[in-house]
Amino acid sequence: MKQSKWIWKPGDFELYHSMLLHNRRTYQGIYYPPMWRVDAPARNVMLYKRAEIEQRETLTVYSNAKQASFLVDNTRYPAGTTVTLEPGKHFIKLFGYKPDGFPAFYCVGDTFASDESWKFGSYGARDAHAGANDMYTEPGDNPEIFKFSYERIAPVSAEETNGGTLYDFGKETFGKLIFENLAPGTSATVICGESREEALCPEEAIVYVDLCEENGGFVSTTVAFRYIFVPALGCDYSLCADYEYLPLENKGSFRSDDPMINKIWEVADYTLHLNAREGFFDGLKRDRWVWGGDAYQSYFVNYYLMNDKDIVRRTQRILRGANPMTMHINTISDYTFYWIAAMWEYYFHTGDKQFIWASYPNMLTTMNFVTSRLDEDGLYAKRRGDWVFVDWSTFFDKDSGPMCAEQMLLCRAYDCMAKCAALLDDEKTAEKFTELKDDLYEKINRLYWDEEKSAFIDDYATGNRNVTRHANIFALLYGLTSEERKQRIIDCVIKNPEIPAITTPYFEFFELDAMCSIGEFQYMTDMLHSYWGGMLNHGATTIWEEYFPEKSRVENYAMYGKAFGKSLCHAWGASPIYLLGKYALGVRPTAPAYEAYEVRPNLMCFGELEGTVPAADGTVWVRMTRDAVTVRADLAGGTLVLGDKSYPIEKDVELTVSLSS
Amino acid sequence: MKQSKWIWKPGDFELYHSMLLHNRRTYQGIYYPPMWRVDAPARNVMLYKRAEIEQRETLTVYSNAKQASFLVDNTRYPAGTTVTLEPGKHFIKLFGYKPDGFPAFYCVGDTFASDESWKFGSYGARDAHAGANDMYTEPGDNPEIFKFSYERIAPVSAEETNGGTLYDFGKETFGKLIFENLAPGTSATVICGESREEALCPEEAIVYVDLCEENGGFVSTTVAFRYIFVPALGCDYSLCADYEYLPLENKGSFRSDDPMINKIWEVADYTLHLNAREGFFDGLKRDRWVWGGDAYQSYFVNYYLMNDKDIVRRTQRILRGANPMTMHINTISDYTFYWIAAMWEYYFHTGDKQFIWASYPNMLTTMNFVTSRLDEDGLYAKRRGDWVFVDWSTFFDKDSGPMCAEQMLLCRAYDCMAKCAALLDDEKTAEKFTELKDDLYEKINRLYWDEEKSAFIDDYATGNRNVTRHANIFALLYGLTSEERKQRIIDCVIKNPEIPAITTPYFEFFELDAMCSIGEFQYMTDMLHSYWGGMLNHGATTIWEEYFPEKSRVENYAMYGKAFGKSLCHAWGASPIYLLGKYALGVRPTAPAYEAYEVRPNLMCFGELEGTVPAADGTVWVRMTRDAVTVRADLAGGTLVLGDKSYPIEKDVELTVSLSS
Predict the structure, then answer these.
(1) B309-320 and B292-305 are packed helices; what angle lies between their axes, rounded to 10 degrees?
(2) Architecture of domain A586-658
(3) HEC sequence for B343-354
(4) SS3 label, residue A209
């Protein structure tokens, strides 16, 4: 018998888990859904497969749906039946209806073992290959239950205070609270805190758990916490938790002689792992949602840490949702542009062409949505319901018209769309988007370039001719202007202290990437020490959503007008892993799918450093001291670059270059 | 406080109950879903309302969803909360998530009492008025439970036979079987039969009930039956049933001095009531689905029997399903055309403009779907996945190209679409579809008319120039040719015994309507006696799906290659109610919404007749003997027509005209 997989309507697995996760947020116990459309999987599904067999074989069909049957040629059987197929042509159709989840099927057989070779019957739309996921290959699996791992954890301390007990689990974590030995009828509101202060402030804490005894115990839904405050329950109960996580293996590593940077790397690592779930989350405590901008940055960290392909695929599917597309991803125009860019970047880092192929129809409809809403000049201008984010958009006016930064992201999206189309041999589409890209490039450089300021201005409609770093950083990162202008941007914007500094860790990702790309490593390592190091000095066990060095620890917990509104475990803070891998270890692909790559290590502020970077299906190990660089890689195509010298890296052959000469 | 209604995403109530009913069919216990896409309601919904209030008032929000909350301006509350609103502007948003049903809300208040004035938040698509239904106005209501009525019924006889007991409930019925006093662990397969023969033939019976004792009893899902066979259970159980029905009041009636016709009218009445459920079903035993052609005929019977508007609205919504439209309704092109026609005919008979307005976007997308798939000549030709039904299409070839009957139905759809557009003051669309109609009328009369045969031929592609009654009946019914050609059709097709007779009760509806419209009443009453009367002579308690007078009773039970495949309670057999109301009582609207109507009674084969016809919101009573006609109506606009004489009917004034002179 061939290995079978559970199969379903393509996309339903991601839509279902997206639906669950986007409906889990609460604020002080109140249901708090997203401000965008949450799509659901189908409740009725039909899958089919036609094949000719030469030998008699059997077929058994299982379904997770109570109401399920299958047709073998024209005879109908209930799910669970085994049928013998005689040699010849057969047409098998699976039918299932599941009102409270999504229908899935598991077929045991040879030719008709269930896998992606089955088709989804769309009833007149577009039949496609069935969905499947390598996590679900056993008949006892249930794709409605996401395959998390669990580990029992206990508080490291308990303290009697405020008329109850404050438990400290030692570090930020995520999971289900487990109460045992509760007296019958016990009920209470338990307060979760990412900080001690939050757990002890029920009026301002964000996450409540409504404890309600059942059979002497209680298990909560998943929550983020380090501290748990339990009011006196009048019984001798015990509290522990089941840490819920995805056991993703690290393929990247980094170690230096700077303990603070090492610690930052470890905390960033833990932060990303906590947020690596059904998809990449923004943060654990509050939204717990999948946001396109946060996810976009997580992808880059992922390529330098775990290099897990499936989580990128799942996240991209979750973000896109179902058709028809009527709003930008998370309502944010930038996030739609990142979503397209992320497709090409995914292929560039992993070489997984299959996913691009499967996603291509949704890429086309996404770009149709985008281009159908441009203004008469072919520029993106905010429309009703759109959120122009960039970096909280604080520098944006209501009447500012088309913003420079948005056109730059759109230009990047055109470029990536054209590349994906070319990859799939859709030359006509590739040409179309290359033309759109070239045209927009020209407009950006004509409409937004300020010759006097040697900078891109935020907008041209207001006449303010205001300059911020954002658009200029994008111009450097995505190559959206001439080399001459790039140099002027570096001199007059990037290195100009009069242009307001970036203050969010979200945009630090882009800024530090740009700074490193122009060799400003000192700026990056200084920022790691002061900004990331500043959080650690406040006792952070995960990276925060935002940080103000000039504010006190507790003042820093406030955000969105709430004393504990800030998420203290936010994925977008994990960027040091990406930056150190790409610029300190210096490993980066120079051709799609790591078919060519370079290793351009840089000691920066370090006396020595060492680490690995996942590279498509291989790994590159780098060690650098003041005296020598050593590289070892299990994939071909590498070049070690040191100053103006290049050394080919042979597969599986350790290369050492002395720096002492 | 204002009367509130439960509100939901528009269409979700119908989608939900459609989903349930279309997933209820079984064949010998095996799940048997439709061959078209079954759409589901949304699981996440947002509804909102903005209003300014002058006085302080309170608002309480309830939801059927466990996960529900609402925003008052920018403050979030859990469902169940009462909030006091101060004078001024307020923006209320309701959020709900219900994974296993559909979210609905009930708001108690004055300005913000929930009703259709609330809006559905589409997140960028098309915001629309909230859905509601007058059945659900109490806080304790649950729109997920369809409001059927129940009546306990008992078998009229029981007979020991075939190793068990055969129960006879006296007539065809529909409901839940109720077993009491079962021994623990009892389980058995119970056989339902519309006929005694079916109940006693487990190998060939269509509907099984898997009895499984629980707490000493068992209640089945709803099934159609007259006979129930229970194998010996070895305990002294009892069996009865809960008859499940919709308590729709008859507003139409008919009585004559012909007992057989009276009986046919009563059996047709019962048949339609049994099939009048969430929507109009095709039949009770087998499909239990909503089919466009069956429903189309039920509408006409309804206008002459119960004149219930909501069941037409529900049925039309169920048929249309959700967007995007990717297949014809029930996969059948004719049914899509009927669906459009039914909109105008609904307005014509009821005057309910609001429903046309609410359905208009779906009418437009339906016509977009239709016109985008026409051939290069603007004709409808079968495409892959389409089913061209007409009348089982037995006279259609695979290569017959565009069929005449289909163009005629499409032309009728264009005409009705244009009329609805004009009703809603969408002049541009009205003009467009009038042009399409005129153009298609010309093509039909040019491409399909055979001058020599004085008839419309089935198709022109094959060169067969075959003539059947179907297209020619449509030409008469929908006025699709000149008066001169109509007369030639009557002479050379309709009255020509060499043209094969119609053999299905489905198409008898159209034929008898056409025959009556040209005054061939004898043909109609003869057919009632022989065809409908023939079924009654076989002991039918409801009208069958099909009937062959030359076959025996038991032979007649067979269909679709199965011994008991035929449905013995099929809605499309109820047409005598429509035909007798329209042509014997002679009541029919001559302007939309019964603003003008005529009463043109005809004694036909009867010595006397009497009855009522619902007319928009009123009723017209007619009595006719050989000596006189008496008419009484509670609505204005009527004209009594007798031969070439006309008499205005005054509202609420009885008018008697003597025929003896």
Answers:
(1) 170
(2) Sandwich (2.60)
(3) HHHHHHHHCCHH
(4) strand
Exposed, middle or buried by CB within 10 Å (0-12, 13-18, 19+), for A640? buried
Distance between CA atoms of residues B440 and B480, nearest Å: 10
Buried b (16+ CB within 10 A) or exposed e, B129-150: bbbbbeebeeeebebbebebee
CA atoms within 13 A on the CB side of A58: 7
What architecture is domain A333-388+394-501? Alpha/alpha barrel (1.50)
Taking only the tens place, the pLDDT of each residue in B99-147 is 999 999 999 999 999 999 999 999 999 899 999 999 999 999 999 999 9
A67 touches chain B (CB under 8 A): yes
**Chain A residues touching B79 at Cβ < 8 A:** 31
Q: Which two tokens stand for residue B101?
A: 């049903």
Please, are residues A404 and A427 in contact by the beta-carbon 8 Å criterion?
A: no
CA distance B385 to chain A (A): 7
Reduced to 3 states, what is the DSSP secondary structure of residue A649?
A: strand
Domain B149-245 matching CATH 1.20.1070.10: the answer reads no
Q: For chain B, give every domain's residue range.
A: 7-129, 149-245, 247-322+502-584, 333-388+394-501, 586-658
Residue of B28, B46, B123 to mutate, testing the A interface (most A Cβ within 10 Å of its Cβ): B123
CA distance A168 to A225: 9
Residue B76 and residue A30: Cβ atoms within 8 Å?
Answer: yes
> For domain A247-322+502-584, is the CATH number 1.50.10.10?
yes
Query: For residue A124, which phi and psi values (nearest 5 degrees)?
Result: 100, -5
Residues A113, A4 contacting (CB under 8 angstroms) = yes
Check whether domain B7-129 has CATH 2.102.10.10, yes or no? no
Question: How far from each other are the two terminal CA atoms of chain B, in whole angstroms?
Answer: 62
Average pLDDT per consecutive 10 residues, chain A (661 residues; last block may be shorter): 94 98 97 97 98 98 98 97 98 98 97 98 94 97 98 98 98 98 97 98 97 97 98 96 98 98 98 98 96 98 98 98 96 98 98 97 98 96 91 69 96 98 98 98 98 96 92 96 96 94 89 95 96 96 95 97 97 96 98 97 97 96 97 98 97 95 61
CA angle, B18 then B545 then B495, to 5°: 125
Contact B29 A78 (CB under 8 A): yes
- Find the distance separating the first CA and the last CA of chain A, reported in whole Å: 63
Give the residue carrying structure tokens 């790994």.
A619
Strands B67-72 and B149-153: unpaired
DSSP conformation letters of A476-499: HHTT-S-HHHHHHHIIIIIT-TTS
The token duo for B508 is 């008898």
Mapping DSSP to helix (H, G, I), strand (E, B) and coil, where does residue A371 land? Answer: helix
Longest dimension (CA), chain B: 80
| Domain A149-245 in the same topology as domain A7-129 | yes
Three-state secondary-structure class, residue B234? coil
| Average pLDDT rounded to a whole number, residues B41-54 | 98
Strands A187-193, A218-231: pairing is antiparallel
Question: B463 phi and psi, to 5 degrees?
Answer: 80, 0
The type of residue at B512 is L
Lookup: tokens for B287 = 């499909």
Shortest CA distance to B620 belongs to which of B562, B568, B656, B581?
B581
Q: What is the dihedral of CA A544, A550, A553, A559, to 10 degrees?
A: -50
**What are the chain B neighbours of A326 within 8 Å (beta carbons)?**
122-125
Q: Using CB atoms within 10 Å of the CB of residue B71, give its burial: 0 to 12 exposed, 13 to 18 middle, 19+ buried.
A: middle
A255 Cβ contact partners less than 8 Å away, ≥ 6 residues apart: A262, A609, A610, A611
| Phi, psi values for residue A369, rounded to 5° | -60, -45
In chain B, which residues have their Cβ closer than 8 Å to the Cβ of A124? 37, 326-327, 385
